[in-house]
Amino acid sequence: MKLAITGASGKTGFRVAEEAISAGYEVRLIIRSQSEIPESIQGCERYVLSDTNGTTLDYALQGCDSLVIATGARPSIDLTGPAKVDYLNIKKQIESCKRQKLNRVVLVSSLCAGKLIHPLNLFGLILIWKRLGERSLQKSGLDWTVIRPGGLNENETNLKNQNILFSGEKTQEEGSIPRRLVAKACIEALKTNDSIEKIIEITSSEENPKTNMSKAIKAFSI
């Protein structure tokens, strides 16, 4: 299986690539010309985009079986960033997938996507645009999964004791999770048929019972 990853040079994206390699996927990194990637994934196939119009993105997705979208706007003084990155760019990626007959897509979004009253919305209504990006995927006709992580952190010192809480849409509003566990959840979603057409919210802590995505989905889908 050939997996494409957009946003592969980002803090979550490169971890998705590492986890995909560990899981046996053939990985294609889709990055920008100014992107820097860590040494751990430099052996992967790379496609460098000059822009995200249909032609160049179509070429980058050719021959891939699935896509993890790990692109996302960062809080900045450019208040148009979320609209461009979390909505319009997501739409372009979805349209390109359809043209290339790439049917399986996992989107990394955010806890509280769609919520209006939230501090993150001070940065260009980022949660509103993320929800519109999600909706574009939901309406696409593709086999989609949306992963909504809580507050992201870089901590990888205690991962074995961190258990993920998987839940359905609009069930968690706070909590955090290491980016490494988000990456693992993306790969688990690709392997879990029950995750198709599901929005899955994830946070982690040592207090959560140990489970897996498939069991959790069956429990919260009842």
TrEMBL record:
It comes from the Bacteria. Residues 7-192 form the NAD(P)-binding domain. CDD domains: SDR_a5. This is Putative NADH-flavin reductase.
